[in-house]
Predict the structure.
Amino acid sequence: MIIVQTPLRISFFGGGTDFPGYFLNEGGCVLSSAINKYIFVVIKKRFDDRLRVSYTRTELADTINDLNHELVREALRKTGISKGVEIITMGDIPAGSGLGSSSTVTVGALHAMYAYQNILVSADRLAEEACDIEVNILHKPIGFQDQYIAAFGGLRFIEFNQNGKVLSEVVELDPEIQKRLSDNLLLFFTGVTRKAESILSEQKDQINIHLPVLRALKDMARQAREALIRGNTDEIGCLLHESWKLKKQLASGITNGALDAYYQKALKAGAIGGKITGAGGGGFLLLYCPLEKRDGVRSALSDLRELPFRLEPDGTKVILNYRC
């Protein structure tokens, strides 16, 4: 039995510039971090040649082609496993909540399947193959950042070059600065899960219309990295506020009246800035809030469930490798 733990993420800046339709022409970059909430993938040998996949439902299939779980199905194809295994996926948060769960499942599934076969693969390869599955094979209207942060972990500045190469760099912070950043971030679940594809499809289709916005978002990712290196964590809050105002222009479903109302409540209570995670439209509200204002913000958003979290230094990893 193999168990793989793969971190979810919060994306701070640059989302949208990781779409191939943008970065292959202009280059893109994001500032993103893994968090200590996870997707777990379990794989074990079956007594027969069938395939059993358990998630929110359970599938029992004779062949890969019979599987409906497309991420697991394509990961099996990619890794060369065709029969005789059971696979279980479990997560710390609901699917469709903006923390990168789909790409995290893909990276975790690939990692587990390779580990099951005693094949050691790099984080780069896991991320590249997850991108290939989601973007090229399944034609998902998504970018490349989630796969890389799930594979590598940590607080990272990730660049997407015009030649298709992806460069991932750890943002090295003094421990006190990293603690302050982590302490000043709050996550609240809006109670809404959604399929991001409609929002992301609109965003993808309108890349050429929104080039000035995407360029500004890319610049903010660079500014935020430099602010953190200087130790100015409060600037992250200010940049989040400006970034969110820009990000809302990329697609019609990114926000709505209820989400905007929650955000305004948080600002009035002392938050400096924030955003809806992922594609928007629901999921989690990420806020930057000075330590002394946190209780006031929590009180203002008392009808939402808070998700306590910390930044996670590690990417996907095997946490159990049991072979009888």
User: Anything to note?
Assistant: The longest strand covers residues 28-45. The chain has a mean pLDDT of 92. The longest helix spans residues 211-230. The radius of gyration is 19 Å.
